[in-house]
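SAMPLE LOG
Freezer: B-3
Tube label: C17
Construct: single chain, 142 aa
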Amino acid sequence: MARIPDAVQTLLVSFSKDFTPSVWQRFACLLTAAVMVRGRRTVWRLIRWSGDRSSGHFSSYHRVFSHRRWASHSLAKRLAVAVVERFAAEGTLELAGDDTVSQHRGESVYGKGCHRDAVRSSHQHLVHRWGHKWGALHCVSR
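STRUCTURE (predicted):
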């Protein structure tokens, strides 16, 4: 994590206790690469960007996500609290949210569901899409 500023490293190290040492090493490598890489952030591209910093077989990096034993929701909550405390400790925080359906077809798509497509639906015409629903939150500190 040599390219990461000290303040961010301190925050990231606080998350390391949620992982086993080998998984933490891979997660930190992927996280660093995800911040630095432009374009699509596939696991393979992140490993390629990491170069010599990534050790072990590439499949072990895929298993960080596919066989995870860590709780992504609790990590996300702790990260959100840390960011708000750091950048908006005082004052008002405005939040704008959006949920978007990402269409995925096929029998073997894990976790897909049938969602109302707000863009293509109207009061008279209801359109459903199969896929994943992603949420995005934009924060502005005032």
